[in-house]
Design a protein that fits this description.
With 175 residues, this protein is α/β, with parallel strands linked by helices. Helices cover 21% and strands 31% of the residues. A six-stranded mixed β-sheet has the order 4-3-2-5-6-7, sandwiched between helices. It has a two-stranded antiparallel ribbon with strand order 1-8. The two termini are 17 Å apart. It binds inosinic acid and magnesium ion.
Length: 175
């Protein structure tokens, strides 16, 4: 079925899988002596988290957090509300935040500050996508999947009004 909202492909299914395998190898090497707690940010990161985790050859733990940022549908305000908190105690843990996309970077800035107050040994970030030139502060990303132009994208976990998360690739959204 043709969907007129799906514009050009920004990241293809093959590109996703190849890059995620590379990220998994890097993470496996970097954390060999201290396996991390993978912290998925719901809902957008669920698919990336599942594929990335299968490419990490270490005894990792999993936890999830859900945050919602106030603002319009396509712009975040930096005011973030925790909708679902972690189950895990972060004391003494190496935490690797798994994020779908960094736009302004404000959601991540809030999240990092919040997690750092809970006594982890380290907090690093693995972001699948980063939009070029939009971050107001350096988002300090240890791992990045793809840098993309500042346009609205969907698929592979990313939504518009809860739709399109199950697309296996990432197209630009045509309103
Ligand atoms: P930030 O706080 O501006 O960095 O916004 C990050 C959050 O906004 C992401 O975790 C997504 O949930 C959402 N977001 C930002 N850009 C897009 C996009 O292009 N498509 C879908 N969701 C997006
Ligand atoms: Mg998100």
């Amino acid at each position: 079925m043709e969907d007129p909202h799906l514009a050009r492909v920004v990241v293809s299914e093959d590109e996703l899988h190849a890059r995620i395998r590379e990220l998994g190898k890097e993470i496996t090497a970097d954390y060999a002596s201290a396996p991390p707690l993978l912290l998925g940010v719901l809902k957008g990161a669920f698919m990336f988290m599942a594929d990335l985790a299968r490419c990490i050859d270490l005894p990792v733990d999993f936890d999830f957090m859900a945050v919602s940022s106030y603002g319009s549908a396509t712009r975040s305000s930096g005011v973030v509300r925790i909708v679902k908190d972690l189950d895990a105690d972060l004391t003494g843990r190496h935490v690797l935040i798994v994020e779908d996309i960094i736009d302004s970077g404000l959601t991540l800035q809030y999240l990092r500050k919040n997690l750092l107050s809970r006594g982890p040994v380290s907090v690093e970030v693995c972001a699948l996508l980063v939009k070029d030139g939009l971050q107001k502060v350096d988002p300090q990303l240890r791992y990045v999947g793809f840098r993309i132009p500042p346009e609205f994208v969907i698929g592979y976990g990313l939504d518009v009004a809860e739709r399109y998360r199950n697309l296996p690739y990432i197209p630009q959204y045509q309103p």
